[in-house]
Specification:
The structure holds two protein chains of two kinds. By secondary structure, chain A is an alpha+beta fold. In chain A, 20% of the residues lie in helices and 31% in strands. Among the domains of chain B are: 55 residues, no CATH class; 82 residues; 48 residues, DNA polymerase, domain 1. Classes of the chains: A alpha+beta, B alpha+beta.
């Protein structure tokens, strides 16, 4: 196709961002959990691919919420 | 004494970041600024107000051990009893068939792969959305036309093993096609030999067998000539100042690749397609939107947070799982919990074969065993620290 569209631009898709090594460590410490206890996202997920996530990463998702305004959510990237 | 300035209010409220949701912070800041215009607020009063809001918010959060899942299930289940059981309804979107009420809600929660009425709302780029003609043109372009749609009649010649399609002259001409174009499309697309005889197409099968002929006949009939696969009907509607294309049938991936389409707003009601093309987070949002839309349309007021919980559960694994036997309930860790849901013997039998054990850590298992359930105040357990005399560390 002539112009490739951006998955992350769609209004249904919230902002995805890959966490750095330090941020990941800090996050797991703050929640006192292991990465495998988080909700997951597959590495071939269109939005995960668009933000360049690799299996083992943690993706930070900034959701828009009708009740809270802005909510941070995290997903652990799994092979798939 | 002069009160605090709006800037001070802003910086003080900003300190709540991370403790209180954004929406409440905004509300608080706005209200305080409003009040400070009429009446001076002292620094002390400001701090008191912010503290009061913070405390009120913390008191309102769900406590640890609260049975949110059960509350959500009941909150969705009870209004569900008041919903229409009728599947079809010509409503809202003129002339388009939409599944509503309970059947639609079940469809969403069961994460059905094929919907009874798939639907797309296609927004166009500004160049196309402002003129009726251009929107119409686009709509015609995406409507699926198969060989069968243009056929006056089809017949299978069993003696010569030929499949004959008689085309409808007016229909073919209206779409700007010719028998030649159609014949070459079939020949190239399906790799078959096509003979043209006026508006009659004779399609020969390579292997001279009946099964081959029959198989080819169905293939030829559903061969796509024009449009986008899956889009069976289109409707152009005006929405505010722009023209929007509604379609029956859905094919998000192909539609989003078209240059006329506004890729950021175009949606479908097919949650699987959204997961495939836009990802799991978009699917989560789609489940919430679709469920709320269905409930609201029936005049039922269910808090979004219940739906959010359901949607979070459905998408937690990275792909969509249905609520029920083949999804969330079927993947519970405990044998007894699974067995108490559906197909009891099957689960117990399989658990025996695989030598599964049950840690009795969930609710259902403990109800069965007649023990206090780990919920609310029952969540807390006492663990004794072993070690040398004199106790632990």
């Amino acid at each position: 196709m002539t112009e490739k569209w951006d998955v992350l631009g769609h209004e249904l898709v919230p902002d995805h961002k890959v966490l750095s090594k330090e941020e990941t460590k800090e996050l797991l410490k703050r929640f006192k959990i292991g990465a495998f206890q988080m909700p997951r996202i597959r590495s071939n997920d269109p939005a995960a691919m668009a933000c360049g996530a690799k299996p083992g990463d943690i993706v930070k998702i900034t959701r828009k919420s009708p009740t809270a305004g802005k909510v941070l959510a995290y997903r652990y990237v799994i092979e798939g | 004494m002069a009160g605090v300035s709006p800037d001070t209010i802003k910086t003080e409220v900003q300190k709540l970041e991370g403790e209180v949701p954004e929406l409440i912070m905004k509300d608080l800041q706005q209200n305080l600024t409003q009040i400070s215009k009429d009446k001076a607020i002292s620094r002390e009063q400001l701090e008191k107000a912010i503290d009061a809001v913070k405390n009120a918010y913390q008191r309102a959060t769900v406590e640890a051990g609260e049975a949110v899942g059960t509350v959500a299930a009941q909150s969705i289940g009870e209004p569900g009893t008041q919903m229409t059981l009728r599947t079809f309804h010509y409503a809202g979107v003129a002339e388009l068939n939409v599944t509503l009420g309970l059947p639609r809600l079940i469809e969403i929660l069961d994460a059905r792969k094929t919907l009874s009425t798939a639907l797309m709302v296609i927004y166009l780029k500004e160049k196309y959305s402002k003129s009726r003609e251009k929107a119409r043109e686009f709509a015609q372009k995406i409507e699926m036309t198969t060989v069968e749609d243009l056929a006056l009649q089809t017949e299978t010649d069993l003696i010569n093993l030929i499949f004959i399609v008689t085309l409808d002259r007016t229909k073919v001409q209206r779409l700007g096609l010719t028998p030649k174009i159609i014949a070459s499309s079939i020949a190239n697309g399906l790799d078959l030999e096509v003979g043209i005889d006026g508006y009659k197409l004779r399609i020969k099968s390579e292997n001279e067998s009946m099964t081959e002929l029959r198989r080819n006949a169905t293939k030829v009939k559903s061969h796509l000539l024009l449009g986008v696969k899956g889009i069976t009907r289109v409707l152009v509607k005006i929405e505010g100042t722009e023209y929007v294309v509604y379609t029956e049938g859905s094919n998000l991936a192909d539609i989003l690749n078209m240059p006329e389409v506004d890729q950021d707003r175009t949606v479908t009601n097919d949650i699987y397609e959204i997961e495939q093309t836009l990802g799991i987070e978009a699917a989560r949002n789609a489940i919430i939107n679709e469920a709320i839309k269905t409930l609201e349309e029936q005049g039922l007021d269910v808090d979004v947070r219940h739906i959010m919980l359901v949607s979070d559960m459905m998408t937690a694994s990275g792909s969509i799982r249905q609520i029920g036997r083949h999804g969330i309930s079927g993947e519970k860790a405990s044998v007894l919990a699974r067995a108490s849901f559906e197909t009891t013997t099957k689960h117990i039998f399989e658990a025996c074969m695989h030598g599964e054990s049950d840690r009795l850590s969930g609710i259902i298992e403990n109800v069965i065993a007649g023990q206090p359930i780990p919920l609310g105040t029952g969540t807390v357990e006492l663990v004794m620290k072993g070690g040398a005399k004199g106790g632990g560390k």
